[in-house]
């Protein structure tokens, strides 16, 4: 199979305001000069509509969606709602939501199905805690998480996976390259086991303290198809070098 197009996505979490459309424009300018790399930004839901109108080649996504199409779910947004706002995909199952909102693998699986039904993409996050890493069972735990979160209908046309060790998110700590490569190989094997040939076409992003200094080494690893970037995506100066480091 041909090399999958690199995918570099910024997760702004609960950061940003309307004035930051200027940051998006700077990222869009850089993305326009880097054909051959897919670039995304997932701002807070309140900014999706404004950002979608100024995104150029940058794909605007949401950070979550509800699994149901409508109903009594105060404060939540359906896939159709975020699509109407201008998002074309959503992050689902981020470890902060799994921890803060108690999201289970079954919830994440249902959210992926809801996005697909709405004609949208999904970035499905998995990753181990520090205790799980220290237990020596990280690969078993994370592949089981993926197997349970992944809908049987998944293909690389609409779904990507993000491996994000919880202990690496926002901490400045990054697994050694051998550990990232071993996890991505195991996730690829799980994708192929669950999806057959289609599993080879799913991009597996790495996330957790990616920055301008470490991006090139991480993005060059086998089966690392891109990066999900938190803190370093909030400013064009720190995000653009990551786009530039992506293999094309
Ligand atoms: C994230 O939260 O998805 C993330 C990877 O954050 P950071 O890059 O800040 O570690």
Structural account:
With 248 residues, this protein is α/β, with parallel strands linked by helices. Helix content is 38%, strand content 16%. The protein has helices at residues 21-32, 48-52, 79-85, 95-100, 105-117, 130-134, 138-149, 177-195, 215-219, 236-245, and strands at 6-11, 37-42, 59-62, 89-92, 121-126, 159-163, 204-207, 226-229. Strands 1-2-3-4-5-6-7-8 form an eight-stranded parallel beta barrel, surrounded by six helices. α1 (21-32) runs parallel beside α10 (236-245), α5 (105-117) packs across α7 (138-149) and α7 (138-149) runs parallel beside α8. The longest helix is centred in the C-terminal third of the chain and has 19 residues, at 177-195. The radius of gyration is 17 Å and the shape is globular. The model has no long low-confidence stretch (mean pLDDT 97).
Oligomeric form:
single chain
Average pLDDT taken over every residue: 97
Tertiary shape: globular
Helical residue percent?
25-40%
**Beta content:** 15-25%
Order of helices and strands: EHEHEHEHHEHHEHEHEH
Report strand order across the widest sheet: 1-2-3-4-5-6-7-8
E-strand count: 8
Main sheet?
A: 8 strands, parallel, barrel
Distance between the termini: 15 Å
Total helix count? 10
Which distinct ligands sit in these coordinates?
Answer: phosphoenolpyruvate
Taking pLDDT < 50 over at least 5 consecutive residues as the criterion, the unreliable ranges are none
